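Database export, one record per block. Field names are fixed; values are copied verbatim from the stored entry.
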Amino acid sequence: VLNGQPYNRKCDVYSFGICLWEIYCCEMPYPDLSFAEVSSAVVRQ
């Protein structure tokens, strides 16, 4: 979606996984990176 590609279930699965990790660990994922850096890394992969 961020890269202009069509939306599919992979976006939901990735987002859900991040949410589960946050709930389980009670921490922010990638605390040393800004939101822009995380978004950029997701688009590149």
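Remark 1: The CA atoms of residues 22 and 43 lie 21 Å apart.
Remark 2: The chain has a mean pLDDT of 87.
End of record.
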